[in-house]
Amino acid sequence: MEAALPPPPGLVPNFSHPPRSLGYGIRAYAAFSAALCSVLISIRLFTRIIILRKLEIDDYTCIFSWVFLVALTVLCQFTVINGAGLHQWNMSIEQFKDLLIYVYVAKVLYLFVLLPIKITIILQLRRFFAPHSYLASYKVLTWLLIISTALAISSLLTDVFQCHPIRKAWEFDIPGKCITSPVVHSYTASVNMATDFAILLLPAYWIWKLKIAVTKRIQISLLFVGGIVACLGSILHLYEARQMVKKADQSYMAGRLFLWCLLEVVGGFISSCLPVHPIFFRAIRAGSIKAVRHDPSSGAFRRNTEEDLIGQSGASSRDPTDSKVRYPDPDAISLHYLQEEDQFRR
């Protein structure tokens, strides 16, 4: 049996019992990431459906992304079983071809996870920071949405049609032409990193322009901390993609690359879901979820002031047993309002 890659000097290919330490780590990490994202989106949807009783387009795009994340997690298990994270000299050529099929599908699924979650975040930011279409921030975020979508589609098409014929992406010994796979990875990683940083820096810029207390700025900023995680994932993704250009051990590098792709996805889910969570936990503390569910006429679904969302409400002045506690709609956040509200408090 011929190895898919000649081993380094002094090593002998081990086809029967190759070491799989990285592979086991990838499988566990993928399962943990999917579980964490499932918890995050469950709280988001519970808040939207049960407490606010209002679903928006970004809720559906978030669900769409989560469905593909579950599919990607399942595929990850099979990808590792077929050699992801395994040194290529411990695989036969046929095993390596099988792995390339799974990697090809995983790259497509990854983009189907990432694009909807980015759309979710941008639509959410547009409601938070640009409640009116005439605002410059609304136009900036709309263009960011268009550019992010266009770049993601271009990455998807590049991944799908990197080879002619397409099956040469895994049947590398048949006639045809391909864009080098590591180059494709680098392009995808660069595009994702650029949009991740734009999504992180724009709200940070708007928040820190506010003429409000520093503590309040920090509280609002913490709701978007997932953007830092996503940017870290995209940086490491790009680094590993560039390393793939230099190294021949593609099966092992593919496993490492998968880790950082998942980190980027987790950061996206944190960014998209965390801003809604304060409403859920405030409802828990108020002990009024049951009342809200059984008494929709109680006024509990009326929009409250935006300060509730960022933990600056006068909750201490409210009776926590009051079943008519009103919950904020995250769509109502307005930077102009936050400035006025802070000046009023002064």
From TrEMBL:
GO terms for cellular component: membrane. It is a multi-pass membrane protein. Residues 309-331 are annotated as: Disordered. The keyword Transmembrane helix applies. Residues 43-277 form the Rhodopsin domain. The chain crosses the membrane at residues 28-51, 63-81, 101-123, 135-157, 189-208, 220-237, 257-280. Keywords: Membrane, Transmembrane, Transmembrane helix. It is found in: Membrane. Residues 319-329 have a biased composition (Basic and acidic residues). Belongs to the SAT4 family. This is Rhodopsin domain-containing protein. It comes from Aaosphaeria arxii CBS 175.79.
